[in-house]
Amino acid sequence: MRIGIDLGGTKIEGLALDTGGAERVRERVATPRDDYAATLRAIADLVERLEAEVGANATVGVAMPGALSPATGLVKNANSTWLNGRPLDRDLEALLQRDVRFANDANCFAVSEATDGAATGAAVAFGVILGTGVGGGVALRGRPLLGANAVGGEWGHNPLPWPTPDDLPAPACYCGKHGCLETYLSGPGMAADHRRATGASATAVEIVAAAAAGDPGADATLRRYEDRLARGLATVINVLDPDVIVLGGGLSQITRLYDAVLRLWGEHAFTDRVTTALRPPRWGDSSGVRGAAWLWPPD
Fold first, then answer.
1. What sign for the dihedral angle of Cα 252, 152, 161, 125?
2. How would you classify the pairing of strands 244-248 and 124-130?
3. Measured at the alpha carbon of residue 63, what is the angle toward residues 58 and 65, in degrees to the nearest 5?
4. Which end of the chain is more exposed for a tag (fewer CB within 10 A), N or C?
5. How far apart are CA 234 and CA 220, in angstroms?
6. Computed from CA positions of residues 240, 175, 39, 282, in that sequence, does the dihedral angle turn out positive or negative?
7. What does pLDDT average to in each consecutive run of 10 residues of the chain (299 residues)?
8. CA distances from 59 to 177, 250, 270 (A)
9. φ, ψ for residue 235, nearest 5 deg
10. Is 127 exposed, middle or buried (0-12, 13-18, 19+ CB in 10 A)?
11. Rounded to whole angstroms, how far apart are CA atoms 27 and 50?
């Protein structure tokens, strides 16, 4: 039996999988924001309840924002800022009295889809998160790629490549730089681009609906988005050359992306023919928590 925990900024989700990957039980609780000790306790209580439900002890994996720094052993880069600078792994292991495995939530997404999802069997899979933020994770033969600096797959904070006049001036990013992929490819990034181009305020969901209804301004916004996503993913192909790229997050539900990006990214990938597959996720919002459970590899 294995338990996965997805530690988010507003919710903590836990599930238990049997050895074949079938879900046995799932539960969500609110995240105790800005309270580190209460966050630890909430995770431990959730693990205890899940084990009681299935009637067995389990391995535990945690999908977390940010990463554990190889330099300090402390959490870094978490948007749940009360975790930063804390020894999350040591504290949670002491509370649960067992070894616990941790990985960035985007890496867990990639592991989930490479284990029994849209990238099953892929030697190299790249998982993309397109939502409120933008991130990425790498799974090599189903195992997460951490990297020497624990930033493997952090694609969203690379600059948009091959900028065009429509892309400039480069938007400011919360990380302190300008022109990060996140500023263009997140949901808020799409909304900001639409507002700059049309003067109209709309959410990403509203833009997609308007484009489907024939609104030319919304359609132009989506075409710019598709081109930027194709350029961004072409750099992943040029560096990592994955077998499969899986899109996750809310914007992965935009069905036209899959045809448009496949049509466009060959202009930028440094190869004569792109054979990388681009797929929607099998497990959707559940991929992070499933990937956390799969941090302990299949038997």
1. negative
2. parallel
3. 155
4. C
5. 21
6. negative
7. 93 94 94 96 97 95 94 92 96 97 95 96 96 92 92 93 96 93 96 97 97 98 98 97 96 96 97 97 92 88
8. 39, 29, 42
9. -70, -35
10. buried
11. 8
| Amino acid code (one letter) for 23 | E
Both ends of the chain: CA-CA distance in Å? Answer: 10
Which tokens belong to 132?
A: 């409120």
Q: Which CA distances in Å does 188 have to 132, 164, 178, 206, 283?
A: 6, 20, 15, 12, 24
**Beta-bridge mates of residue 61:** 4, 101
Q: Which of 248, 15, 261 is nearest to 110 (CA)?
A: 248
Query: Residues 293, 126, 80, CA angle at the centre, nearest 5°?
Result: 60
Task: Find out whether 63 and 108 touch, Cβ atoms under 8 Å.
Answer: yes
Query: Between vectors from CA 197 to CA 191 and to CA 200, what angle results, nearest 5°?
Result: 60
Residue type at 138?
A: V
Which whole-number Å values give the CA distances from 189 to 46, 131, 268, in the listed order? 35, 10, 22
Give the pLDDT confidence score for residue 299 in this predicted structure: 66
Q: Cα(163)–Cα(166) distance, rounded to whole angstroms?
A: 8
Residue 36 burial (C-beta neighbours within 10 Å; 0-12, 13-18, 19+): middle
Q: Residue 233 in contact with residue 265, Cβ under 8 Å?
A: yes
- Mean pLDDT over each residue of the chain, to the nearest integer: 95
Dig out the tokens for 6 from the structure. Answer: 């997805």
Interatomic CA distance for residues 137 and 149, integer angstroms: 14
| Cα→Cα distances 43→4, 15, 40, 86, 296, Å | 10, 12, 5, 15, 18
Q: What are phi and psi of 293, to 5 degrees?
A: -65, -35
In sequence order, the 6+-apart residues with CB closer than 8 A to the CB of 259 are none
Can you tell me which residue has the tokens 């909304």?
A: 191
